[in-house]
Design a protein that fits this description.
six-stranded antiparallel β-barrel; 2 domains; alpha/beta; about 30% helix; TIM Barrel
Length: about 350
């Protein structure tokens, strides 16, 4: 194990392939059992190499967060792609090109978005984004008549296909316990069914990892779009969605300083992001693993981040670290941590390439 990472000189995301594959297999099996299509969100891993692990489990349709990411995966042969982000008409040329090559899904949540999608003059499946209470994007579930008008406009279109209604219930990430999480999911799903009933029978797409892992009732839904489950992280662990042995992404960070009360890492906000898990009055941006992909050491959290520096409380395992060694940190939020890097390492030391984000 040590020799596989002897050449690491900067903060490096490392993926445990066996754990990630087990996470994928578990979600795929659940979707089959419940009669749902699994359209996983690839914004978490952003890697064609990791995408093959999904193909091995029978996944054929995917979700991405941008048209650029859609082009990256289309080049690898993925031909059924939903861009789960409101359509950006400034990328009309790319959208039109993709619509001619793949079964492209777009999102709209208003008349202007619909007109922009229609202006493509290219075939595309269009979902109506519904806000079931999260308050970020989408037509409010309290205004189903607005969704009905959009659906009718899509049904009249010569080039666009009405795909159905879609939501991301981000409120599950704010749940305090399993029961409140499941209540939030049930409420969001019921609101989606109400909108669908007014519009007329149409597919319902749901997309948050916590509910997709823990819930069993998906009555009325046709597909699920979880993404974070491929890696999981401390946020999911805090919600009771995963355990230590399912977290498949860790950051290997060089130790550059040892103090009596903290350890200083080469690994800051530009490597982890500033997402955090709140424990009492403390923000935790990550937590030290007892070894490479070992149990989480609660006594050694990553409690401070500046641009390139990371500060770990000198708990039981952190106190064993020496300058020049590697600290293994599970991030608070794997999606953002992964996005900040151009490639991963596997546990055997091999490079796993990923999308560069168009940068």
């Amino acid at each position: 194990m040590v020799s596989s990472f002897a050449d690491i000189i900067r903060p490096t995301p490392v993926v445990d392939e066996l754990r990630a594959r087990a996470n994928i297999a578990g979600m795929a099996a659940k979707a089959r059992r419940l009669g749902l299509e699994l359209r996983p969100h690839f914004k978490t891993h952003q890697s064609v190499a990791i995408g093959t692990w999904f193909r091995d489990e029978g996944v054929r349709a995917i979700t991405v967060s941008s048209l650029g990411m859609a082009a990256y995966f289309a080049a690898d042969g993925w031909d059924d792609i939903t861009v789960a982000f409101p359509y950006n008409p400034r990328e009309a040329a790319l959208a039109g090109d993709l619509a001619g090559r793949v079964r492209l899904g777009l999102l709209v949540d208003g008349d202007e978005g619909l007109r922009a999608a229609a202006a493509l003059g290219a075939p595309a499946r269009v979902w109506i984004k519904i806000d079931t209470g999260y308050g970020r994007a989408g037509v409010s579930w309290k205004q189903p008549e607005a969704s009905l008008a959009l659906a009718e406009g899509l049904r009249r279109s010569a080039t666009l296909e009405f795909a159905g209604i879609l939501t991301h219930n981000g409120a599950t990430y704010q749940a305090k316990d399993r029961q409140s999480l499941l209540i939030s999911h049930a409420k969001s799903l019921a609101r989606m069914r109400d909108v669908a009933a007014l519009i007329g029978d149409c597919p319902i797409s749901l997309g948050d990892t916590p509910a997709c892992v823990l819930a069993e009732d998906f009555e009325g839904a046709s597909e699920i779009r979880p993404g974070n489950f491929v890696f999981f992280d401390l946020m999911q662990r805090a919600l009771g969605v995963c355990n230590d042995n399912q977290i498949a992404l860790a950051m290997a960070c060089p130790v550059v300083g040892v103090r009596s009360d903290h350890i200083l890492l080469y690994g800051g906000a530009v490597h982890f992001s500033k997402d955090f898990v709140e424990v009492g009055d403390q923000r935790r941006y990550g937590c030290l693993s007892e070894e490479a992909f070992g149990p989480v050491d609660e006594s050694s959290p990553l409690i401070g981040l500046s641009q390139g520096h990371g500060t770990v409380r000198a708990g039981e395992e952190a106190a064993k670290l020496k300058v020049g060694g590697l600290a293994w940190i599970y991030p608070a939020h794997s999606c953002l941590s992964a996005d900040l890097h151009s490639a991963y390492r596997s546990r055997n030391g091999a490079c796993i390439p990923k999308w560069d984000g168009g940068r």
